Amino acid sequence: MASYTVADQTTAFQGFARRAFTQEKRYPVASSPSSRDMEQGSVTEAHLLNTTVESISWYGVTVAVKDRQSKSPRSLVENVEGIVRAGELCALMGPSGSGKTTLLNVLAHRETNAKTVDSTVLVNGLKMPLSTFRKISCFVEQEDALIGSLTVRETLSFASRLSTDTKSLPVKDRVARIDSLLEAFGLREQADTLIGTPIRKGISGGQKRRVGVASQLITGPKILFLDEPTSGLDSTASYEVISYLKWVAKRNNLIVIASIHQPSTSTFNLFDKLLLLSKGKTHYFGPVPLVRQYYAQLGQTIPLEMNTAEYLLELVNTDFASSRGFAPEQVEYLQRAWEASPQCAGARYEMAAVTFDCGKIVLDEAHQKPSVPSVIMTLLHRSLIKSYRDVVAYGIRIAMYLGLAIMMGTVWVRMDTDQSSIQPFTNGLFFGSAFMSFMAVAYVPAFLEDRLQYVKEHHNGLYGATELIISNFLIGIPYLFIISLLFSAISYWLINFRPSAPAFFTYLMWLFLDLLAAESLVVFFTSLFPSFVISLALVAFANGLWMSVGGFLVSPDILNVFYKYVFHYWDYQKWVFEGMMVNEFADRVYDCAQVPGGGCHCMYSTKLEQQCLIQGQGVLDQYGYRPGHMGRNVGILMAIVVGYRVAAWVVLTLRR
């Protein structure tokens, strides 16, 4: 291993210090876009041009988790520091488990689920509040949450509408901005192509990555974070994505920081700076062109014919060190060599210069955020497009409910008003309402997509849980009403429930409220547990519980005290079933069975027994139901619906 003399270190340190002070000259703040740039479709526009954020720096970044075996803290990232200036593209690179994604989350002010996080992240040498930081930065996920049923143009349009008020950005300028980005990212030919769903094919993987980046750039960030933007792409597509990022960063003076695993040589050389990590510790931070020279000084000459990134990853990877003849002690030595190197000292000197010399920042407030009602209307518009294009959202559910209506109508077809039909009528009311709510589990995947989109857009400061919950509730109302109407129109008259228009519309009302409550339950559980399997299981279990304690399977008079007072009274199926029972039996009369030789036998003893008839109230008495409480019951059911929505809002608000 090579060693440094004091003279060598002093000379190298002076060189890095000079580079630190001339860094601002290498990447000066971009001027206003020229007419030539605009004519060529350049993305250098006022909303993209960064004239305020000069640098982002960080030091002392340490993230620790609790080790399951030793039960003591274990560092994922330890004392990492660095600086990236405007116009630079920085790569966070390291083997799997090196801490690059954790570091990226810390720099982007995102949750890490770690026990302790100690860090100092500065913008222009100053600490910045989270709300302000989100105004100037965006984060692109490794698997970016894009709505597959939207076109490329619509994706950019909705991203723009959610980030900028129409008053500060007229429609004409918004369209021009979208066209400019489509041209710059090579997406003009795919502008009207769907992103793609599991059922309907859309654009390619590389194009999706570019759409993800463009949808964030259109919001006008000054700092862009990307989590492995080349993951799952071939070398050509990876180079394409990174080259666009570099071009945009240089043109608009943006700061771009991306975690990356193992780029090709051509892709690796596109980056301006490299932060190499191993076991959460820094092994190199500085210009990419100087990385070969640095490791050559340590006796690790990188062969010219070998991919530099691949060599570095093998060099600092301890997982397979024994099989390659490398000792973990050698990796530790390389890390200590970095700490003692003049390159490390130069980087720290540059950070110190920024901290002391850039103690001010002026944020660009040229564009205003849209108001809450405006955001809700935009989300409603987007959800409307998604709902009629994506069959998973409501199309499949409508088909399911129509099938259930036909099945029920043909099984319970044209029941008579004989006493033998009383129990089948009761069974039909319970079965229809219970299974309509149970089948709401089909909404789980659709809301999961909405939730993933919300998490991304919320972290990027576009809107909060209030806008999501309100827009989601409003968009569901017409569809749930249509489902209720179709189901009722088919099953109600085929079964021969009480044949009157008021009775039909009352039944329709209860069924609609039933679906509102069932979908609200889905929204709550999916917000709480954003996993398809877990949400599906919990919603199914909850509906099974509501069926059991609703009052049909076990009469409320004999229901277990625990279930009666803990679950029964806030079981929405209980109120729906009670309302439907009162609607069907309160004003209806049934014939008793004729006894051979004269007389009759009535299953229920009522005032009309002498007339060989059964008054419907006698059926209701078996369940303890009385008419005249419709307003109260509707109010309780609406309170349950609102309760689920508020609970979902609380969950989404707390899980920031």
From TrEMBL:
The record's GO molecular-function terms, alphabetically, read:
ABC-type transporter activity; ATP binding; ATP hydrolysis activity
* GO CC field: membrane
Q: Does the keyword Transmembrane apply?
A: yes
Localisation per UniProt entry? Membrane
Q: Which SUPFAM superfamilies match?
A: P-loop containing nucleoside triphosphate hydrolases
* Keyword Magnesium on entry: no
- Transmembrane regions: 391-413, 425-448, 468-495, 507-526, 532-554, 634-652
Report how it sits in the membrane.
Answer: Multi-pass membrane protein
For this UniProt record, the keywords arranged alphabetically read as follows: ATP-binding, Membrane, Nucleotide-binding, Transmembrane, Transmembrane helix, Transport
Pfam families per UniProt:
ABC2_membrane (PF01061), ABC2_membrane_7 (PF19055), ABC_tran (PF00005)
- Entry-linked InterPro entries: AAA+_ATPase, ABC2_TM, ABC_transporter-like_ATP-bd, ABC_transporter-like_CS, ABCG_dom, P-loop_NTPase, Plant_ABCG
PROSITE patterns to which the protein is assigned, alphabetical: ABC_TRANSPORTER_1 (PS00211), ABC_TRANSPORTER_2 (PS50893)
> Which segments constitute the ABC transporter domain?
51-304
Xref: Gene3D superfamilies:
P-loop containing nucleotide triphosphate hydrolases
Which protein is depicted?
ABC transporter domain-containing protein
The protein's organism comes out as Neoarthrinium moseri
